[in-house]
Structure formats: C-alpha cells, structure tokens
Amino acid sequence: MASPDKSAWDAAERAPAHCWVVDVQDDAGASRFRLGSTELVVGAGAGSDIPVCDEAVGAQHCAVCVVGEGVAVRDLGSEGGTFVGGARVKEALGGIGTVVTIGRTTLAFTTLAEIEYDDESSTPLPGIAGGSSVMRSVAAQVRRLARHSAPVLIAGESGTGKELIARALHEEGPRRGGPFVALNVAALPRDLVESELFGHERGAFTGAVARRDGAFRDAVKGSLFLDEIGELPIDAQPKLLRALDGYEVRRVGGSGSGRSPDVRVIAATHVPLETRVAAGHFRRDLFHRLEVFVVEVPPLRARKGDLAAISAQLLVQMEEQLGAKKLTSAALARLLVHDWPGNVRELRNVLYRASDIAGSAPVLDANHVDRGFRHRSDPPRAGILPAQAQAIMVEHGNNLSAAARAAGYPRTTFRKLLGGG
Asked: Which of 86, 319, 343, 413 could bond 159 through an S-S bridge, CB–CB 3.0 to 4.6 Å?
C-alpha cells in the first residue's frame, strides 16, 4: 500500500466497485461485503456500514472505498490504529491481497474475478479457522467431494493442515459415523509398512505374536488417511493399488482372497507426486488412481487474512499451559509481514514462545511477537523501521521509555528512529 494523493480523496475518478469485495474476519467469524465508490465505515458501532465484532475496534474505526484501480482505507481517528504491512497508517491505497489490521480483526481485499468458486455462501469447515476467499473455495470443494467415495489427494506444503482437511472430508460426508484412521507413511519402519496397512497373521515374521487386522480393516465403513503418501516404499505400492481397485487386501503371511474393505482412502503429500513418479520412486498407475480428486491446501502466506482467526484458535489451545492471551493490533500486524515458510506449525511455535515470554500478562504485544521470532542463538534484529517504532510508541501510550524498553533499544536510539534526532 502507498499513501494516496489528497486529490484521491477529494475528486478522484472512482471506478465502479461491483467487482471489489472485502473479507472481514473478527471475533464472530468471517463475512464478506461488496465495496463501492462511496466510503463505507468499518467499526464496532451499531451505525457502521461494515459492522465488526471486536472489542478492540472503535465504533467508527476506519473507512474503505474503491479509488481508481484499487481500494483506499482511511483511519477515522481510532485509538487502536489501522495497520498495513506492519505499520500504522492514516491513509493508504491497496489492491488484491492487501490485508488491513484493526484490533484483532483483518480486512482482506480482493475482486470477484479472483475467487475461483462461487463461494458466497460457503462457511469455514468445522475445526479449521479462517474464512478467506481461498479457504472458502477449499471448503466448497471439500463439501462437494465429501459426497463421493473415490480417493482424494490432498496437496500442500508441510504445516498447512492437510490432516484437518482430511478429517473434514470424512465428517462432511456419509461416512462420518464410521472410523477415521490416520497413518503417517513416512513414520513407519520400512519392513512394517505392509503389516500396518493390511495386517498380518500370527507368526508371519519375528515379533508377530498375534494376528493383526491393519489400517484398512480398522477403517471399514469409514476413511483411511495416508499422510506423506509419497514416502510409501515402491514394493508396497502394487498392493495398495490392488486395494484401491477393489481387489483383495491380504494380511502379511495370509492366504486366500477377498474383496477390498469398504474404505475411502484420502492421501496427502507435501512433495508433488509427479516428481516422485519422474524419479522412479512412485508408480504412475498408483498416482493416477489416487488423483481422482485433488484438493490444494494454500500456504499461510497466501491467506494472511486468516492469521487473526488461526492465531486466536492456537492461543485458546495453549491457554491451559500458558494462560489466556490476546494479540494487540501491532502484534497481529507483525505476524502479517512474515512469509511463514513453516506455515501454521511455525505460527504455533512463534505464539508459544511469545506467550511464554509474556508470562502472566494477558496481552501479547509487538515486542513479545518479535522476541518469539528469535529463538535458540539467533542474533537480535538489525533494526526496525520508523513506522514500526511509531507503532510501538502508540502501543505504549506514547511513553518513550516504555516503548524503547519494549523495542529493546536505548532511549536515545529509539528517539532517533522516531525522527526526533
């Protein structure tokens, strides 16, 4: 975002806004509003055009509208501030993908043309925080695929929550009354993969002291989730293919034949299976059998509008160990400027460390989050931007000494960052 010219507010040529929308995620959940060339007031007050359920948001917090080829946001003198890109702003212009923070609420701007599915009525999946456009599309796809019994391949980076999507496929469909069995293929000893999947007879190998059914039979009338399917040993793949094709599932050391159990297989991978096939580590016929339907789980950097909701959910999960915690606007803004290569798993670690650093304090501020990013023997940050320093000042009531301590700088150095010489 960049600050607009004065003329942009007074007499700019304003584009029709029928294609622009803002996804709002607050304490009540996710909602979507269409934007026009007329300013809409965003706030917690009853008279707001875009109402927000968040005690940290002012009654009339900011205003948004379409200006030219983008969207303009203007702070309305709010106490908590309006943040873009980690900095507090008074006025700014943004475009597709811009995320604004007010209180613990995010406003994410996009156009209807960028939305893959007609997901206006799609709500977030149970247990999965985040109502961004991309996750609404995933939710719509999952609900559609849940009706089928064909295999589904869930693709996405490590830490994006692929198992949560698999559980949603199970819970949203007719198999919800059956078992959900999860197996991490990569964690299985190579010589026990077939036994874990298909079971074994007593005495089939050293240590097989009793007959075992295996994951396929454990998941009868339900769903079998095979995580990290790309790590399945090549010699076990033909047997899985036969099971998927409806043929037999034979225990290790067993004889005879029989039909494959009534099980829906959901597989997941963080490595494109096409590369495993090209390298000769994965059978092409098994790949095509698994990819009947493919659900792509977006990385966290592609859905930053979900950060507030995901963070709130994670903090609730940590509450028993670390106490109840909430993020300040500046702290949430810090999270938004990170690219999250480790996705939700990395976010959980940062919040856990920040909560530990905060101790008994009920609020996580920007300093706690910054320190949460630094761990082990990582060196301290080289510096902060003036806009970040100003945000810390506001967060600490314009108390220079308190703000400098929070930022980890001497008072004189911090004053220079503020432009005070």
From this structure: 343
Tokens (6 digits) for 346: 């990395």
| Across 233-241, average pLDDT | 88
> Of 11-15, 94-98, 114-118, 245-249, which gets the smallest average pLDDT?
11-15
Taking the mean position of all CA atoms in its chain, how far away is CA 124?
A: 12
Token pair listed for 314: 């994670």
Q: Is 106 helix (H, G, I), strand (E, B) or coil?
A: strand
Helix axes 366-373, 400-407, angle to 10 degrees: 20
Report the Cα–Cα distance between both ends of the chain, in Å, rounded: 27
C-beta separation of 270 from 257 below 8 A: no
How do 180-184 and 152-155 pair as beta strands? unpaired
What local confidence, expressed as pLDDT, does residue 197 receive? 82
DSSP bridge pairs for 32:
23
Amino acid at 176: R
> What phi and psi values does residue 401 have, to the nearest 5 degrees?
-65, -45
DSSP state at residue 205: S
Q: Whole-model pTM? A: 0.78
> Is pLDDT at 119 greater than 60 in this prediction?
no
Average pLDDT over residues 379-396: 65
Instruction: Concatenate the DSSP letters of all residues of 148-196 into one string.
Output: --S-EEEE--TTS-HHHHHHHHHHTSTTTTS-EEEEEGGGS-GGGHHHH
Give pLDDT tens digits for 266-280: 999 999 999 999 999
State the SS3 of 324-357. CCEECHHHHHHHHCCCCCCHHHHHHHHHHHHHHH
Q: What is the DSSP letter of 14?
A: P
